[in-house]
Amino acid sequence: MTRQQSSKTILMVEPTHFESNAQAINDNTFMNKPEESIDVHKMGVEEFTKYYNALTEKGVNVKLFQPRGDGIETPDCLFPNNWFSTHSSEEMSNTTGKNTLVLYPMCHPNRRLERRLNIIDYLKSRHQDLDIIDFSHYESDNKFLEGTGSFVLDRVNKNAYICISQRSHKDLAKQWCDKMGYTLVSFESLDSNNKIVYHTNVIMAIGTKIAIICLESIPNPQEREFVQSTLSKTHTIIDISKDQVNNFCGNVIEVQNEKSEHFLVCSKSSFDAFTDSQKDIISKNCNGGFITREIPTIQSVGGGGIRCMIAELN
């Protein structure tokens, strides 16, 4: 088998503890304090459920988990892609050749509680030869690397893109690439308020044929040119603006269903913010089209979009 960029099976965690995460709001500029009149918990669950149904209706295989049941609240548990990632034996063919699970060090203490044995046990059950790489012990050194929030991966060409931030430590990223057989492409990214972007996956996404990225968010011209030239070797680039980033156009993901149809999964706000020409390019390169629903509460209060809600299973 050849390496695949997008997954046919994904994992999601229902946000039954959803609320504003006071620990994370200081370095996530996409988070906003909710209005008192809004039932954040109810709205979060409703938005999540509509999106889950939209994915399954298109034939996407979704493994759905509930949050912790021990009374410990994990308000960001619906963003599981930050604490683990999975990698197929084909993807690891130039290193161990084994199916691999990676566990990551999380910046904020209440997000570390999202690592759950029942999910890890499920991931172990999928492959008998599973290799586990655990970076979580770096939390004690205040070094963090938050999964496919920190990394945007070109799994076919083995390039790992990362904007360096409090949650994305460059030395750990280098270690990860050494173990995983990837080439590191690191850069600094600034948002519309000139603050460091906390996660790479809010400003870029990589599909099978297209790469969506906000090039203007990379202030260093050498870094910007290197990122652009590396992506353009293998992908059609869709360059989005910082305003489009604020509408979560970068926080999207390509998935497949059982028929191998490719879809771009994006929120309603990002779909509306894409230009007609950008939508046309996406549609030509994703034969299943778009899967889109409104998730305004999750985006505004949680500070993450649909891509953050999806953990790929490979």
Outline of the structure:
The chain has helices at residues 40-57, 109-112, 117-125, 147-150, 170-180, 221-232, 242-246, 268-273, 276-285, 296-302; strands at residues 9-13, 61-65, 84-87, 100-103, 131-134, 151-154, 159-163, 183-187, 204-206, 210-213, 236-239, 253-256, 262-267, 289-293, 311-313. With 314 residues, the protein is α/β, with parallel strands linked by helices.
Helix-strand layout with pairing:
Layout: E1 9-13, H1 40-57, E2 61-65, E3 84-87, E4 100-103, H2 109-112, H3 117-125, E5 131-134, H4 147-150, E6 151-154, E7 159-163, H5 170-180, E8 183-187, E9 204-206, E10 210-213, H6 221-232, E11 236-239, H7 242-246, E12 253-256, E13 262-267, H8 268-273, H9 276-285, E14 289-293, H10 296-302, E15 311-313
Parallel strand pairs: 1-2, 4-5, 7-8, 10-11, 13-14
Antiparallel strand pairs: 1-15, 3-4, 6-7, 9-10, 12-13
Protein name: Amidinotransferase
Organism: Dictyostelium firmibasis
Pfam family, one: DDAH_eukar
CATH topology descriptor: L-arginine/glycine Amidinotransferase, Chain A
Widest sheet, order of strands: 2-1-15
Distance between the termini: 13 Å
* Helix vs. strand class: alpha/beta
CATH classification, class level: Alpha Beta
Unreliably modeled segments: none
How would you characterize the largest beta sheet? Answer: 3 strands, mixed
Q: Spell out the helices and strands N to C.
A: EHEEEHHEHEEHEEEHEHEEHHEHE
| Assembly state of the chains shown | single chain
**How many strand units?**
15
Protein name: Amidinotransferase
Organism: Dictyostelium firmibasis
Pfam families: DDAH_eukar
